[in-house]
Amino acid sequence: MKQHEVHIPFCEKCSLETNAIFRHLTLEETETLNFEKDFRQYKRGDVLYQEGNRISGFYCINSGIIKVYKTGLDGKEQIIRFAKPGDIIAYRSVLSNEPACTSAKVIEDCQVCFIPSEILISLVKTNSAFALELLKLACHELGEANSFITDIAQKTVRERLAEILLLLVNDFGLDEQNYLRISLTREELANIVGTATESVIRLLSEFKSDRLVDLSGRKIKIMNSKGLEKISNVFS
Fold it and tell me: Which residue of 53, 58, 104, 232 lies most exposed, with the fewest beta carbons within 10 A?
């Protein structure tokens, strides 16, 4: 085997491992997906698509992490979500036939499958189980967006940062030493919380002093999740 040989993932295996919506496809539909998709690899910092672009398909993440964000008038990013293995992105622009409403940039080297628009439209029209799962996914993402808007309006930056840390634990988990399995810059954290980078730096220092977290470069160790829950008011 060649040293740099790339193994393109099979959709039927990937969907079972990641619980992706493609598990609802028939054998024939899965074979079509395998044949039509374009397997791509990206490095940290690469941009998959930009807000306002017309895109001719959507992406299914096989490995790595991608941040999905919007850019304000001042050029500041507001991170909407992180896409991880099994997630799909840009599908709403395909369904609505509108320019991309977000941008997507790689924060951890990734492998993705690019699937042409016509494949998604065909699956929605012919496979009701797949269409229902896609609708559920869109509704779930809308619910998360509504929650974020409420948090921005009603919670302090301290509360939001504590909640974001807990959400990152839920989405990506902790390693054997209780460090988050996602490494983010302070600016990226600020762009999720919706505040200035300086505020996140100050609050993380306070959390460290209160023994809620420990810090090692970009890595964050969760020391007291119950304490973070109390601060975040996530169960209020």
Answer: 53
